[in-house]
Amino acid sequence: MNTPKSYGKSITKDQLPEGIAGFFPVHSAESPKGLPASLLLSILKGIREDIAVIKAAFSHIEMRMVGGSVLVIYEANIDKAKAGMEWLNEEVEEDSGEESESDDDDEKNKDKPHAPYIVKLIDFAHTKLVPGEGPDEGVLKGFDTTLKLLDGRIQEVQDLV
Q1: Which residues pair with 126 in a beta bridge?
Q2: Residue 151: inside a domain, yes or no?
Q3: What are the start-end ranges of the E strands in 57-135?
Q4: In-domain check, residue 37
Q5: Phi, psi dihedral angles at 70 (to 5 degrees)
Q6: H helix intervals, the chain
Q7: Into how many domains does the chain fold?
Q8: In this structure, are residues 156 and 41 in contact, taking their beta carbons and an 8 Å threshold?
Q9: Where residue 64 sits, what CATH number does that domain have?
Q10: How high is the pLDDT of residue 96?
Q11: pLDDT attached to residue 109
């Protein structure tokens, strides 16, 4: 799905839940885009958990960030997303401390299951430490807003399961 940059610049606060629902659609007979509700719910909860961990870390760092973003990518192909969730659940269960395989051989690993989502902090070049000034309240507010939007979408999807 392609969303023009102008949409992001024109969306109002009241339209944010609609935007999140558009980014995380539920697959149905009427709407073939998206993932089945139960699968999407698992992915949404994982994304939310990762963002909460990042927010917790930022709440202890005295810095100022200008223009940073949270990048969220998730697998929208149903079969690959299912395989990714199975792989992720196995990885969590196994977590034996063994080193994972090297990803150097992309050709060899391209068909292997991988994490069904990823959350990264990007565009943080204009960040500086400010000892004694406390955490960046604007960044924390952004994380809070994102978490609330995810909570709302999680509830909507949970109601469908």
Answers
A1: 66
A2: yes
A3: 63-66, 69-74, 117-122, 126-129
A4: yes
A5: -105, 125
A6: 5-10, 16-23, 37-58, 78-94, 106-109, 137-158
A7: 1
A8: no
A9: 3.30.470.160
A10: 56
A11: 62
pLDDT at 4: 86
pTM: 0.86
Q: Which two tokens stand for residue 35?
A: 């993932």
Question: Would residue 4 count as lying in a domain?
Answer: no
- 63-115 pLDDT, tens per residue? 999 989 999 999 999 999 999 999 988 877 776 555 555 555 556 666 677 89
- What b-and-e string marks burial along 32-54, b requiring 16 or more CB atoms within 10 Å of the CB? eebbbbebbbbbbebbbebbeeb
CA–CA separation, 8 vs 19, rounded Å? 9
Which range marks the domain in which residue 114 is found? Answer: 32-93+110-155
Compute the C-alpha angle 147/2/40, nearest 5°: 40
pLDDT exceeds cutoff 90 at 58: yes
Higher-pLDDT residue of 148, 7? 148
- Give the bridge partners for 139, in sequence order: none
DSSP 25-38: PBP-SS--SSB-HH
- Per the listing, tokens 């090297």 go with 102
Q: Residue 138 domain-assigned?
A: yes
d(CA 136, CA 59): 8
